[in-house]
Amino acid sequence: MSLKLTLIFAFVVQNIYAKSSDEYVQLFLNEEIESNLIKVDFLIIQNLNLEEVDLKEKWEDLDEFIFSEELIYLKEEPTTLVTLIQNETNALTLPDIRIESSIDYPVINEEKTQVKAPEPFLFERIPFQNKMMAIEANLNRSRDYRVVYYNSWYQPAVQQERSLPVFIEAVKKDKKVYGEINIYKERFIHLDSRIRFSQQTEVIDTSKMVPNLINIQELVENKKRKNSEVEVEDNYWMETIFNTVKLNFKYLEDFITSDDSIISPVLIEEPNYKYQDLYEIKKDIKLDPETLNFVDHPYFSILIRVEEISN
How would residue 255 be classed by pLDDT, with cut points 50, 70 and 90? Predict the structure, then answer.
């Protein structure tokens, strides 16, 4: 391959996650989760330039994929998505949104407002990721790679036994990648991945087996309503870590729009063909922060970058 992908040697460990989504949400209720957050940039790329030795290798047949009992659904549409507005001079301006300044300046004129950044929710796509979209575009322009899946999101930095896995799925043409990942923090940040690469068949899939996807934001809102019947301040949840992630302005990258051909819906339904699982990445590895980490396979690879953020 043209890219110098570093081969990652790691061992597979048994998945040890939170017992249920209710227990996971309770961590937020009890304020047991630290304020540290992780920004995740996650890509799955198909390797087009295969070496002769890889083409001759026989890969083991894969058993039916068994998902964890509960999986976190990454919301595709950002809650705080900013709609760009153009004025008469065609300059981009920000609408009136809930924002907070990263630097405190002395107030000279009360009518003047500070430059501020939007506050994204957790476990949902982050808009305006100019740098990551540039990486995606460069990979797609190459002769050796195609990006099959891309997403960026924020999540809490929790220990493995307190975490829940995240659901991953995307279809591009006749190829499909799917599975689950768990990004957790012990002494270091780790990625525990089970991702499969599949090929579409001509057989219609009539099965009704679907993963149990959990929308954490909805669960938190439900908990809010239930707890408010007992005793909860009206502004309590606005002040907790889960509702908003206060970020420095540097995290609001260039405002751009992209006609992204890679879509990751909750479930891929139409056309509803069966897919044959061909290859699997199943590894638990330590991640180097703020750098691109590769989990390599001759036919497809994971590319991930994590960044720790103090709320």
Answer: very low
